[in-house]
Design a protein that fits this description.
Blueprint: H1 3-34, E1 39-48, H2 58-75, H3 78-88, H4 93-99, E2 100-104, E3 110-117, H5 120-145, E4 154-159, H6 172-197, H7 204-208, E5 214-219, H8 244-263, E6 267-271, H9 279-292, E7 297-301, H10 309-312, E8 337-338, E9 343-346, H11 355-359, H12 362-374, E10 377-381, H13 390-394, E11 400-406, H14 412-424, E12 429-437, H15 439-444
Parallel strand pairs: 5-12, 6-10, 6-11, 7-9, 7-10, 11-12
Antiparallel strand pairs: 1-3, 1-4, 2-3, 8-9
Helix pairs in contact: 1-6, 3-5, 8-9
The protein binds adenosine-5'-triphosphate and magnesium ion.
């Protein structure tokens, strides 16, 4: 994959990834908004060590700081907190131990007493009570071990706690940012997984990477309002002049015409890896587009199991290719329907019970050869290449092959296998048509303007 491929993937998924991030950021905000607010209040205690001389030495200062650390530990001892719990009331020692913490402020003789509570005023009250009781507690402890009151260290409250305005938890900003980052990571991982496992042929580059000619893309046609979805078929005969669908087939036909000229192919097999990828649609419309350039074109429905070509031209299918087995080559033209000045169609005819036998018979070869004499180009709509022997049996009867890949449906691996099968059949592969392309991808390459036709806005 090149940097361009990565950029393309990023562009394709950008909107969904952004949406995912916004959703997870929004969810983080809502969850945070529902969480209980916790406030933290802070009181400060100053520790003054008993002085032995007028000017304190470095050792005295270091001693004071170490004493401050010791006293900081004493703030949260159960003796001190138990007294605070008694004064505060309605709270146990255990709860206070969870709510109160104390620590020496580095390089100072200050102790910071922190108290947390869901109520800002109560947080301040707890901090002030614990800090306020501490000097008395220290004094008692010193008196118990010393007789001279003057030689005592002094401890007093340097700053009372005030009720805090903002909670310390939860932090809405941080949580929303974390939500956005998490959403981004999940979305990027999901996109990477989807792209890794998505083996569908999506665009021109997927085909070009297989080192086969790309003939162009055909638009995904919209089913007209009121039409029966099962019966309707995209046909350039039924489309209005200048329609994007016609333009896309003309573009493919123009590329194909070069291939036909260069390779001298006159009997062209249209197939695809799997079912429903648009073989019949492509064969019928390309036959029509080729006939527009005043070549005599014959479309043969070569799908002996599921004939379809008659539907595109509203023809009866009571007789067709399978019926020609019973007649002499001279009678063949009688089975052919003339649907335009230059276009003729040989429908599939009644479904045969033994298509593989028919296809490998000498009679079939003679029939195709005889018909090829009567037309400039013969297009054969064929069954899928993979899973059935029919397409391989058609191979010796034709001069060249055109493959159809359906955007998003045809697997890249299946297309590669089909290309390999065509190469094994030693017939020239004129190229691959990307069928059912979405408008965005289709028009990225400027199709629709190639011949100067106006592009209609989508219905
Ligand atoms: N470009 C297109 N835009 C819209 N619909 C399409 C297009 N190409 C094909 N279809 C629709 O897709 C369906 C399958 O198309 P089609 O019959 O041509 O495929 P197929 O490969 O010949 O199928 P099968 O393997 O059954 O012979 C049909 O309903 C057809 O109308
Ligand atoms: Mg078909």
């Amino acid at each position: 994959m090149t940097l361009r491929d990565y950029l393309k993937i990023a562009r394709r998924w950008a909107l969904i990834v952004v949406l995912g991030c916004v959703l997870s950021g929004g969810a983080a905000y809502l969850l945070t908004a529902r969480m209980d607010r916790v406030y933290q209040a802070r009181a400060v205690i100053l520790v003054n060590q008993r002085e032995n001389q007028a000017a304190p030495s470095l050792q005295d200062i270091q001693g004071s700081q170490s004493l401050t650390r010791t006293y900081a530990e004493l703030v949260t001892t159960s003796n001190n907190l138990e007294r605070a719990a008694g004064i505060l009331g309605n709270t146990s020692l255990k709860t206070l131990q969870k709510k109160v913490s104390a620590g020496a402020i580095p390089e100072t003789q200050l102790i910071e007493v922190l108290a947390e509570d869901r109520n800002a005023d109560r947080a301040a009250l707890i901090a002030n009570t614990v800090a306020g009781l501490f000097p008395g507690y220290v004094e008692e402890a010193q008196l118990a071990g010393s007789e001279a009151r003057t030689a005592l260290n002094t401890v007093f409250v340097a700053e009372n706690a005030l009720p805090p305005e903002d909670p310390i938890r939860p932090n809405v900003k941080v949580n929303v940012i974390l939500g956005l980052i998490l959403g981004l990571m999940v979305m990027v991982a999901a996109v990477a997984l989807i792209e890794y496992f998505d083996d569908g042929v999506k665009e021109r580059e997927d085909i070009e990477r297989m080192a086969v000619p790309y003939l162009g893309s055909v638009l995904l046609a919209d089913v007209p309002k009121g039409a029966d979805k099962r019966e309707w078929v995209p046909s350039i005969l039924a489309a209005e002049p200048g329609d994007d669908l016609i333009e896309s087939y003309r573009q493919v036909q123009a590329s194909l015409a070069f291939g036909l000229m260069a390779s001298d192919v006159r009997v062209l097999l249209v197939t695809s890896p799997g079912q429903g990828e648009g073989k019949s649609t492509t064969a019928a419309n390309l036959a029509e587009a080729l006939a527009e350039s005043s070549r005599r074109v014959l479309l043969i429905d070569g799908d002996l199991r599921k004939p379809d070509a008659h539907r595109y031209f509203s023809l009866p299918n009571s007789s067709g290719l399978t019926s020609t087995f019973l007649v002499d080559p001279q009678a063949l033209p009688a089975f052919v329907n003339h649907v335009g000045e230059s276009l003729a169609v040989l429908t599939g005819g009644p479904v045969a019970p033994n298509p593989t036998e028919l296809l490998s018979s000498r009679k079939m070869k003679a029939t195709i050869d005889a018909l090829a004499q009567l037309y400039d180009i013969v297009v054969i709509d064929c069954p899928p290449m993979l899973g059935l022997a029919d397409a391989s049996l058609w191979m010796p009867l034709v001069d060249g092959v055109l493959l159809v890949a359906r955007q998003g449906k045809t697997r890249r691996s299946a297309l590669e296998d089909t290309i390999a099968a065509v190469r094994a059949g030693r017939k020239p592969l004129l190229g691959v048509v990307l069928n059912g392309s979405d408008r965005k991808r289709h028009f990225r390459y400027g199709y629709g303007y190639a011949y100067g036709y106006a592009r209609r806005s989508p219905q």
